[in-house]
Amino acid sequence: MGKITFYEDRSFQGRCYECSSDCPNLQTYFSRCNSIRVDSGSWMLYERPNYQGNQYLLRRGEYPDYQQWMDLSDSISSCLLIPQHSGTYRMKIYEREKFKGQMSEVTDNCLSLQDRFQLNEIQSLNVLEGCWVLYEMPSYRGRQYLLQPGEYRRYLDWGAANAKAGSLRRVMDFY
């Protein structure tokens, strides 16, 4: 079970909304979000309703200012509690759409996809076990994309505007 509290103003001030499960439309409860307190669980926040737009992974801790979770604005419109996973982590990444081209299997964090697999782009992937976060740049920087178990036949399926990929991290490493 997770718990996250959103505050309209910085430093945990103003109106707040507490959440313990997925919420597809936070705009029902507040108009802006300038600080967040995560009491338990790991959460993916989305810039737009229905889990769309830029994504931001937050784990337990306090975020007194929206810039602390790498956001460029005070717009958080939906959130998803990431399920804990205690088993193994495994995914297959492909250089082309629809699981074609060079395939590599990943079972642990990857700081640089370029260094490890000679890939700057991932066109499709299949998450077999565990939840992962794909980063647009190496060293876990840039835009973030939550990858839950399932097939992603093209980069648009995980919400990216392009196939640029720099690093991968297992969500368990955020707890």
Tag the structure with descriptive keywords.
single chain; about 180 residues; mainly beta; Gamma-B Crystallin, domain 1; four-stranded antiparallel beta sheet; 1 helix; eye lens protein
How helix-rich are the residues, as a percent range? under 10%
Strand order of the largest sheet: 2-1-3-6
CATH class call of the largest domain: Mainly Beta
Order of helices and strands: EEEEEEEEEHEEEEE
State Rg.
Answer: 16 Å
Mean pLDDT: 93
Uncertain regions spanning at least 5 consecutive residues: none
Principal-axes geometry comes out as elongated
Q: What is the CATH architecture descriptor of the largest domain?
A: Sandwich
Distance between the termini: 13 Å
> What is the total domain count?
2
**Category by helix and strand content:** mainly beta
Biggest sheet overview: 4 strands, antiparallel
The CATH homologous superfamily of the largest domain is called Crystallins
CATH topology of the largest domain: Gamma-B Crystallin, domain 1
**Helix count?**
1
| Number of E-state strands | 14
Domain Beta/gamma crystallin 'Greek key': 2-40, 41-83, 89-129, 130-172
Keywords: Eye lens protein, Repeat
Protein name: Gamma-crystallin B
GO molecular function, one term: structural constituent of eye lens
3D structure, described in words:
The protein has 175 residues and is an all-beta fold. It has one helix at residues 113-117, and strands at 3-9, 13-19, 35-40, 42-48, 52-58, 61-63, 78-82, 90-96, 100-106, 124-129, 132-137, 141-147, 150-152, 167-170. The strands form four sheets. A four-stranded antiparallel β-sheet has the order 2-1-3-6, with no helix packed on it. A four-stranded antiparallel β-sheet has the order 9-8-10-13, with no helix packed on it. A hairpin with a 3-residue loop joins strand 4 and strand 5 (52-58). The longest helix is centred in the middle third of the chain and has 5 residues, at 113-117. The model has no long low-confidence stretch (mean pLDDT 93). GO terms for molecular function: structural constituent of eye lens. Residues 2-40, 41-83, 89-129, 130-172 form the Beta/gamma crystallin 'Greek key' domain.
